[in-house]
User: Fold this.
Amino acid sequence: QVHLVESGGGLVQSGGSLRLSCAASGRTFSSLAMGWFRQAPGKERELVAAISWSGGNIYYADSVKSRFTISRDNSENTVSLQMNSLKPEDTAVYYCAADTSWRAIATMKNDYWGQGTQVTVSS
Assistant:
């Protein structure tokens, strides 16, 4: 079992920055692929960014490339999402996700989810 707790959400003006963090416990963190998903009101949940257990493979959705950066610290059991140049369309609940399988993250069939943190970008 893996327990995920997100932090760092909030309200920011368009063009601003936020950093989300996710603390994991319950399983060897370095064995997990990690991801960040988001879900806006009335929309489906979508994968924003993902990182493999080693950090060697990283994925970004086209909508966030060059603005968001995912990183992980296997010594601290954390994964972070640095979000810059935020836009109103980035407003959503952001969820941390984990699985031993990279493919499971990519197809949203991962086993573990955090409770979510709200990000609101005002225009």
